[in-house]
């Protein structure tokens, strides 16, 4: 059984004139990213590999979450995560080595939310706000598709 953690970047600032990829986290976003990492640790999770969008807000989210969760976990910046559709995220996840038992994907909406809905065949309307994560169990990485994941935990910053 493999574990996929899907984490949306935490709350980012809207700075006039700043490119979207360079938007930093707000103070609240920084706190929420750290809380996400601590919550994942409290669930007994620790990623073997982190796949992260190269945007500033996703990198900051990953770094802050990993600080208390798994500071030595390999972090790979994957440009295809930025603005990715669920099928593109599934293709990227499918290339993960089978030796990786727990994978953390840090990305953007709507792609990450739709990925969770697709894998779990869920039609929830809870949303996936900044800083939210879902933990899914799968039978492997290769060939993942609709219904191949089971959500075992969801968290949103406002849940605490």
TrEMBL record:
Protein source organism: Sphaerisporangium krabiense
Record InterPro entries: His_Pase_superF_clade-1, His_PPase_superfam, Mito_Ser/Thr_phosphatase
Gene3D superfamilies linked to this entry: Phosphoglycerate mutase-like
Matches recorded under SMART domains: PGAM
Composition bias, Basic and acidic residues: 19-35
UniProt keywords, alphabetically: Hydrolase
Domain of life of the source: Bacteria
Region span, Disordered: 17-37
Protein name per its UniProtKB record: Phosphohistidine phosphatase
EC annotation from Swiss-Prot or TrEMBL: 3.1.3.-
GO molecular function, one term: hydrolase activity
